Records
---
Amino acid sequence: MHFRQETPADRAAVEAIHRTAFPTDDEADLVAALRESDAFVPELSIVAEDDGRIVGHVLFTEVTVAGTDAALTLAPVAVHPDRQGEGTGSRLIRHGLDACREAGYELVVLHGDPAFYGRFGFEPATPYGLEHPFDLPDEAFQVLWLVDDVAGRIDGRVTYDAAFGEL
Ligand SMILES: CC(C)(COP(=O)(O)OP(=O)(O)OC[C@H]1O[C@@H](n2cnc3c(N)ncnc32)[C@H](O)[C@@H]1OP(=O)(O)O)[C@@H](O)C(=O)NCCC(=O)NCCS
């Protein structure tokens, strides 16, 4: 198993992973739309490859928030259903977060299950003064600070790429 930046040749396999892992095509469509957007950061579209087969994908794209120009959101992440529960998703996310840090980003926000994302250090975002524009529970809105001591100067409403609004 190894983790690397997605290439154009991987696109169909990546979208197929999202189509099979999620109940609808929304996430596959989101990935396709984000690739065409200004929020896309090519080195932060990362695949898990095992023996020449793409088995997972995670995408980090840029968001806007007051106090920094180095903010990301993690969405979506998926592992092929016949390869879930083997630790691949966790390793893929950890690899991706290291890549975000190395690229100089300061925070990552996401919406997801705190029981899953807490293991990577994500914590509730609203107590930091961060807000999201979605009709989703605040408990699911989480942040990971990638750099020490930046939390105090970054707050307010997070603005997402228009592709998220098409979901
Ligand atoms: C979530 C996902 C990427 C995790 O990948 P994975 O390779 O199965 O994950 P790992 O083997 O590293 O970790 C498994 C853990 O994730 C948990 N988990 C898996 N899917 C989950 C989900 N949708 N929500 C919450 N927890 C989930 C498992 O219960 C397990 O927890 P445990 O370690 O406490 O037992 C994968 O299960 C997947 O593609 N799910 C469908 C798509 C999805 O829900 N994506 C995330 C949306 S926020």
---
Amino acid sequence: MNPQDTRALIVGITGASGAPYARRLLHVLAAEDVPLHVVASAAARQVYSLEIGRPLEEDLPDQAVLHDERDLAAPVASGSFPARGMVIVPCTMGTLAAVAHGISGNLLHRAADVCLKERRRLVVVPRETPLHRIHLENMLAVTDAGGIVLPAMPGFYHRPHTVDELVDFVVARVLDQFGIAQNLIPPWTGDFSS
Ligand SMILES: Cc1cc2nc3c(=O)[nH]c(=O)nc-3n(C[C@H](O)[C@H](O)[C@H](O)COP(=O)(O)O)c2cc1C
């Protein structure tokens, strides 16, 4: 992978429920030849194995570079690494809090902090319900810092029949945020008749 490739996307995976979102996003991006740097928390690896049925490291697209969350010397820890941005999918309330308060306690938090300071796109896909005031305030803080909060909230107006279609709805919204063309979910046409 060319280290100067500005198309690179950092994909943070945390220990929130929703590993299928991360899995689908990574495989769609790989099909689009997007260079991928994956930072997974320890909790993410546990929840991924539980929800997908195989370890994260055995399920990544070939081109994805997997970083340990403890590796604070990884390229993505520096603003000099020319990534196009980062998505944290799914994002726990703990990681949301760290990002909201600029606490770079691990590589995932640091990479997100770097995206904010470099004014690069940071998309956070939180998964928790219900939400208390601190969760909501942290989402506002991330928004105020320039990040985009994109909750894992699939719509139903495309009449999904499968879980995969619900997953695709959220993944499509993430791709839209990075200007990556997608045909997972057709755009709403305003036609109520179909
Ligand atoms: C099966 C499972 C599902 C979880 N789902 C969520 C969730 O949806 N949202 C959340 O904020 N935390 C969830 N957690 C808790 C986090 O994994 C936990 O707070 C962890 O410390 C988060 O660390 P991380 O942010 O570094 O990944 C879940 C834990 C487990 C074991």
